Amino acid sequence: MVNILLSIALGIIVISFILVIVRFMLGDTVVDRVVALDVLTVSSIGLIVMLAHFFGRVIYIDVSIVYGILSFIGVIVIAKFLAKSL
Amino acid sequence: MEYLEIIGAIVTLIGAMFILFAGIGLLRMPDIYNRIQAGTKASTLGSMLTLLGIGLIHPDWLLKIVLLIIFILISNPVSSHVLGRAAHFIKVPLSSRTAVDKLAEDEDRVTQSK
Amino acid sequence: MMYSLIIIVMSLIMLVMAFMAIHHKNLQVAVIASGIISLFASVIYIFLAAPDVAITEASIGSALTVVIFFYVLNKIRQSDDTK
Questions:
Q1: Structural domain boundaries in chain C
Q2: What ipTM does the predicted assembly reach?
């Protein structure tokens, strides 16, 4: 029961990846693409923690912690580059 | 104990639905500012609910997951605010149905008073 | 079966992003596309049960490379402005 519900959630997140990638390919300005990168990062944190349940190993959560911290720095640097204040 | 696992699975499913709503909003909204609002807010709530559901299924992982939830809750609105300000700075055009733009009015008032 | 399907979808997304990173006119979009390639590579490493490689790929490929590329683009823009 639990594994069936979590498998449906995994499929829904992969469908959302495809929608965000379509916005990345269509997007007309750079800021659109940076927002797409941000949404991809946050939803892949959810995906990695869900995989930690499926494989049963707690070390995968450490991967998502590192990922969250470093991608936040990346988005801030890109935004300050666009605002000409880096 | 079994009830806690099923509640956690349902919370995780609701979080995945919110991430799907973020994707649809990012695809359908007409304007960059609407896209920032729809995408970032919905994906923050969806990711937090997903993490909370996994934490309800495995209660011994709850410390790291609460740490991750607090970090997402602090960092993601900050990055969305900085992106919106950068988009307004490089003058990305607004949608044709925008009613009011307070930041542009303030900047006009500052430049006129100088 | 389901894991193989998810890995195939992510590999196709990586292929599209690599094509976009090579052939796009705007340089900033190409750098962001290479960052997305590293993101999906990290998730695929997790599917293959290698979390240490995934941490290294996420920290170097997706964060540090993008930050250094934008720092260099900023330097190039400043030297173009002063001319």
A1: 2-82
A2: 0.89
